[in-house]
Structures are given as structure tokens and as C-alpha cells.
Amino acid sequence: MVNSVELLQRAERLRREGRFEEGAALVREALTKDPKSTLAKLLDGYFHAALRESEAARASFRAVLTLDPEHPRALLGLARIAFEGGDAATAGQLLDRALHIYPDFPEALALSASTRIEKLRC
User: What is the mean pLDDT of residues 64-77?
Assistant: First the structure.
């Protein structure tokens, strides 16, 4: 019998290969085995975001923050959704929180620069 860690490892490999539907199915299975897994909820958010399911991705990232209010990758996920939805101000606030926790977070630094540029355009 496969445990949730093995399922999540497989799901991550599939995510990196761009096989989002297959990976999402493994994450759902992992969540049935371990419904409080922060990593499973985070991966669930990544898959929903990759599949352009913004509301479901947002819910997954918020579920991560319920378990770990200072999870920088969940904050980044929410910031990306906000930025892609045209809300640079909210994205900037979320990125500020993530960077307060993890100041050298490369992806957050890059998106933060984009949000500042977007704010200047408005």
C-alpha cells in the first residue's frame, strides 16, 4: 500500500513534467490519507493554479495558511493569483508578508518587482 508521502513525491514529479491532471489525482488521494498535510494542500494549490482553477487554488493556499499562517509558498501562491487577476496591491501585501518571513525568497522577490512596476503603471 502506498503512503501519502510516496503519493506526493510522485505528484511532484508529474507536476514538473507538466502532467497536471495525473498529479492532481495523486494529491487528492494523498489528502484522503492525510487530510491535514500542509504539503498536500500546497501541491493541491499548485495543480489548481496550473489548471487555471483560481478559486480552488486560492482555497488550497488558504487551507495551508490555516495550518501554517506563515507559509511563504502559500503566500506566494495567493499573490500570483491576485497579480494575475489584476490586483497588484493585494499581491504586494501578500509578497511583503512572505518576504518578511523569508527575505531571500527568489520567486517572491521577482514577483514583488513586477507588482511594483504594475503599481507605477496605474
Answer: 97
